[in-house]
Amino acid sequence: MEKVQAIKPGPKPKTPDGTPDERRRVTPPNQPKHPILKPHIHKPKD
Q1: How many beta carbons lie within 10 A of that of residue 37, not counting itself?
Q2: Which residue of 8, 13, 37, 41 pairs with 26 in a disulfide if CB–CB is 3.0 to 4.6 A?
Q3: What whole-number distance in Å separates Cα of residue 21 and Cα of residue 8?
Q4: In a structure prediction context, what are the per-residue pLDDT tens digits for the chain, which is 46 residues long?
Q5: Which residues pair with 20 in a beta bridge?
Q6: Residue 34's CB: how many other CB atoms inside 10 A?
């Protein structure tokens, strides 16, 4: 039987000019490190 290995998430991709990809989101605690990225806030379930 083969051993299954999980895919590890890599670093966020950067655009050719060196800025982070703006389509990604950042969690509020990490917002100061990435001021350009939009915050990712989970909405409470109904």
Answers
A1: 19
A2: 37
A3: 19
A4: 788 887 877 666 777 887 766 677 888 888 888 888 888 887 877 5
A5: 14
A6: 17
